[in-house]
Specification:
single chain; alpha+beta; globular; binds adenosine monophosphate; binds zinc ion; Zinc-binding protein; HIT-like
């Protein structure tokens, strides 16, 4: 999608601190990290919100990619959180779905 920030990151039109990519997904560090480790995993296909998603394998791959990276970065055993915000009440600000993965500190619950 031409005016989507995360599509532009995937295309290399906007720089990002890339961690991983394959034919389906792209992972990169969040520019506004809320924890010592905070990265995003996104599908290469533009999907605005999780409400529009219908590919279970692709959505599952976002989570498994996050856990693989958390293990490789060495904070999986201590623990971490994966979360996807949806629409206004969910706090979504970028309308290309992205799984947040946060770790490296004790996270509080519930979120605000
Ligand atoms: P959300 O509020 O769930 O839509 O999350 C959007 C996330 O994208 C926020 O955590 C932002 O810090 C992050 N973000 C926005 N622009 C960029 C960018 N250019 N590079 C990396 N992360 C970004
Ligand atoms: Zn997009």
């Amino acid at each position: 999608m031409s005016d989507c920030l995360f599509c532009k990151i995937i295309a290399g039109e906007i720089p990002s601190n890339k961690i991983f990519e394959d034919e389906d997904v792209y992972a990169f560090h969040d520019i506004g990290a809320q924890a010592p480790h905070h990265f995003l995993v996104i599908p290469k296909q533009h999907i605005a919100t999780i409400n529009e998603a219908d590919d279970a394998a692709l959505i599952g791959k976002l989570t498994l990619t996050a856990s693989k990276i958390a293990k490789e970065m060495g904070f999986a055993e201590e623990g971490y959180r994966v979360v996807m915000n949806c629409n206004e009440d969910g706090g979504q600000t970028v309308y290309h779905i992205h799984l947040h993965c946060l770790g490296g500190r004790a996270l509080t619950w519930p979120p605000g």
